[in-house]
Amino acid sequence: MDTSNEDQLIKQLLANYKTPEDLIGEDGLLKRLTKKLVEGALGAEMTHHLGYEKHAAAGQGSGNSRNGASTKTLKGDFGEVDIEVPRDRNGSFEPKIVGKHQRRFTGFDDKILSMYARGMSTREIQGHLEEIYKVEVSASLISEVTDAVLEEVKAWQNRPLESLYPVLFLDALIVKMRHEGRVENRAVYVAIGIDLQGQKDVLGLWTSANEGAKFWLQVLTDLKNRGVKDVFIACVDGLKGFPQAIEAVFPQALVQLCIVHLTRASLSYVNWKERKAVVADLKAIYRAATAEQAEQELQAFSEKWDSRYPTIAPLWRRNWERVTPFFAFPAEIRRIIYTTNAVESLNMSLRKIIKTRGAFPSEEAGLKLLFLALRNVIGRWEVVQYWKAALSRFTLLWEDRIQAATQR
Q: 146 vs 20, 101, 117, 130, 266, CA distance in Å?
């Protein structure tokens, strides 16, 4: 059809148009057109299936013929649409545009998933669909649509991973879930890896009663079983036994204690009036040019603040071996590896999604929503800043490990 004919057809269709209701209302043009187009396509599919046009002589004695139609109600952007689905006598017709058990237009489920992924409750989704699309959906339908994601979650959680992640961030967030009949706080373990191209990815989600090094050992073993051969730097919080769990699975990995976590732990001892001054002096430690200078700054901090806060300097000294690995790298690379901000930022996004929920009815329900939310967040991630410089440095230091991990 050429452009002039298309324009003429549109003009004819809109000849009686006066208000938006005439186009998108309950009996509007779009709904009626949708019905006609879908039924026309179904008729064409039946013709193709039988091999002859309706009422054609070729159908006589063919062994199969048209056998009326059944009515089906489809939910979609234009509300509910009743369509006539043709049948054949042999019952062998399998429609494509609207499958036998399909009750919703393609794309309608995606709208439900999109709303669910943004933290909307079942009741809010029902209200939104009723208000915007004039479609009534049951709670069980929403559950059915979102439960269909569980197989995708399972496949994602067990997918093969890259053989090498130069940087790995590990952290956990606390989520209320119903477990064995009662609501409790459960830890959701999150692992983010940066691959050789500088792209961040969430490697998996795991749940446990609380955050502990023993469970992290299981998480790391799972990563290894899914194909991860090596990690250069693992950035973690100050959880006791965490570094040993990492080194048990990836013995060559440098364990970098997250400076943000350590600073936060230090400030828990400081009164509000002096926090700004303490932060400035702690910053002088981790912003030092070298590990040696950092140690001098720590000594200066100790001399200045030990009388007021005698626990802070010893806290840094006890963890000094895990504080200093990032000093081996140029300043522009250090920010990539000395903080778990990547996973902290992700966790913040996830908390925004789940904050309206009192508690998840099960671990499956929690992981389902977190997975859908992750898809939205990950889709916006870009290559890590200064990654080429970081990779160049990693190659100088560990080219043999890159080759060993990536060789087929």
A: 32, 17, 9, 18, 43
| Token digits of residue 304 | 């200045």
pLDDT tens digit string along 228-237?
999 999 998 8
Closest CA to 199 of 230, 225, 161: 161
For 385-406, the DSSP string reads TTHHHHHHHHHHHHHHHHHHHH
pLDDT of residue 152: 83
Decide if 161 contacts 406 (C-beta within 8 A).
no
List pLDDT tens digits, range 385-405.
Answer: 889 999 999 999 999 999 999
CA atoms within 13 A on the CB side of 320: 14
Distance, in Å, from the CA atom of 272 to the CA atom of 279, rounded to the nearest integer, reads 11
Angle at alpha carbon of residue 381, lines to 379 and 383, rounded to 5°: 135
Sheet containing 254-257: which strands, arranged edge to edge? 200-208, 182-194, 164-179, 230-236, 254-257
Helix (H, G, I), strand (E, B) or coil at 256: strand
User: How far apart, in whole angstroms, are the C-alpha atoms of residue 351 and residue 124?
Assistant: 18
State the Cα–Cα distance between residues 284 and 259, nearest whole angstrom. 12
- pTM for this structure? 0.70
Q: What span, in angstroms and rounded, lies between the C-alpha atoms of 162 and 232? A: 13
What tokens does 36 get? 């006609």
What gap in Å lies between CA 223 and CA 206, rounded to an integer?
A: 11
Q: What is the dihedral of CA 27, 28, 29, 31, to 10 degrees?
A: -60
Q: How many CB atoms lie within 10 A of CB 353?
A: 20
Please name the residue ranges forming H helices in 77-209.
108-117, 122-133, 139-147, 149-157
pLDDT at 15 over 70: no
Tokens of 231: 């990690």
Q: How many beta carbons lie within 10 A of that of residue 395, not counting itself? A: 14
Residues 46, 66 contacting (CB under 8 angstroms): yes
The CA-based diameter of the chain, rounded to the nearest angstrom, is 103
